[in-house]
C-alpha cells in the first residue's frame, strides 16, 4: 500500500470515529466540511478551481455544501475511503498528488483534538516530505513577511521568503517542517528562533500553497 492510500485509510477511519461535528485546523471547518472538501477535490474537477483561485471560491463553496446535502457525512466518508477517483486513478498521480494532501489533512483532524502526539514517520516518507518542503519553499513562503531557514533534523537546510527581510530559523523533522510551511505554524512541533518580532510575524503569516 502506498503512503497516499495509507493516509487516506487512516483519515477515513478517524473521520468515521469522530463524527461530523469535530473540529479541524482548517479555519471554520468541521470534519463534515473537510470530508466534503476532499471528495470535491477528487470527484468534482469542475469545482476544484476555487480551492486555489479566489474568484472561483464561491462556486466551490456552493458545490461543497451540495455534496454535504446529497451524500451526508457517512456517505462522504465512504466515498473518501473508496480510493482515488477520476484523474487520480492514473498511475503515479495518486502518490504524487495525495501523499502530502492526506498527510496534512489527517494531521488537521488529529491535532485539532484535545489530546494528540506527533507520529513517528518512516524514514522514506520523511525523505519525501523533505523533498516537498525544499522544492516548494518559494511557493509555500511567498507570502511570508520574513526570510525563513528550514533546518531538518538529521541534516538539510532550505531557505525561502523575501531576500532582504530579517530571518527566522525553523528546526524540526521533515514532516513537521512541511506542516509549518502549509500554514499550521502553531501546531507544528518545531523550534522557531530569531528576533521576537520576526518570529511573531512568521507565526501569524498566511503560509502555504
Structural notes for this entry:
The chain is α+β, with helices and mostly antiparallel strands and 209 residues long. The protein folds into two domains: 3-110, no CATH class; 123-203, Nonspecific Lipid-transfer Protein, Chain A, CATH 3.30.1050. Helices cover 50% and strands 9% of the residues. The chain has helices at 3-18, 31-43, 57-81, 93-110, 123-135, 137-140, 174-181, 196-203; strands at 147-152, 157-160, 167-172, 191-193. Strands 2-1-3-4 form a four-stranded mixed β-sheet. Helix 1 (3-18) runs parallel beside helix 4. The chain starts with a helix and ends in a 6-residue tail after the last helix. Residues 5-82 form the Mycothiol-dependent maleylpyruvate isomerase metal-binding domain.
Shape: globular
Major β-sheet, in short? 4 strands, mixed
Ends: how far apart?
27 Å
Name the beta content range.
Answer: 5-15%
InterPro entries: CHP03085 (IPR017519), DinB/YfiT-like (IPR034660), Maleyloyr_isom (IPR017517), MDMPI_metal-binding (IPR024344)
Domain Mycothiol-dependent maleylpyruvate isomerase metal-binding: 5-82
Give me a quick take on this structure.
Residues 5-82 form the Mycothiol-dependent maleylpyruvate isomerase metal-binding domain. Helix content is 50%, strand content 9%.
What are the defining features of this structure?
209 residues; Nonspecific Lipid-transfer Protein, Chain A; 2 domains; four-stranded mixed sheet; 4 strands; globular; MDMPI_metal-binding; DinB/YfiT-like
Amino acid at each position: 500500500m502506498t503512503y497516499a492510500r495509507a493516509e487516506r485509510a487512516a483519515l477515513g477511519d478517524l473521520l468515521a470515529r469522530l463524527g461530523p461535528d469535530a473540529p479541524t485546523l482548517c479555519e471554520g471547518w468541521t470534519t463534515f466540511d473537510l470530508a466534503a472538501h476532499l471528495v470535491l477535490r477528487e470527484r468534482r474537477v469542475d469545482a476544484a478551481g476555487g480551492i486555489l483561485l479566489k474568484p472561483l471560491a464561491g462556486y466551490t463553496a456552493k458545490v461543497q455544501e451540495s455534496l454535504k446535502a446529497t451524500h451526508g457525512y457517512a456517505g462522504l466518508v465512504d466515498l473518501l475511503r473508496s480510493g482515488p477517483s477520476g484523474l487520480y486513478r492514473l498511475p503515479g498521480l495518486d502518490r504524487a498528488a495525495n501523499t502530502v494532501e492526506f498527510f496534512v489533512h489527517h494531521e488537521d483532524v488529529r491535532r485539532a483534538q484535545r489530546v494528540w502526539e506527533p507520529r513517528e514517520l518512516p524514514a522514506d516518507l520523511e525523505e519525501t516530505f523533505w523533498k516537498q518542503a525544499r522544492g516548494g519553499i518559494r511557493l509555500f513562503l511567498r507570502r511570508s513577511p520574513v526570510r525563513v531557514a528550514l533546518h531538518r533534523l538529521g541534516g538539510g537546510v532550505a531557505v525561502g521568503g523575501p531576500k532582504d527581510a530579517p530571518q527566522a530559523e525553523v528546526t524540526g523533522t521533515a514532516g513537521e517542517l512541511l506542516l509549518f510551511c502549509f500554514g499550521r505554524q502553531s501546531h507544528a512541533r518545531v523550534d522557531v528562533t530569531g528576533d521576537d518580532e520576526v518570529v511573531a510575524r512568521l507565526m501569524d503569516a498566511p503560509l502555504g500553497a
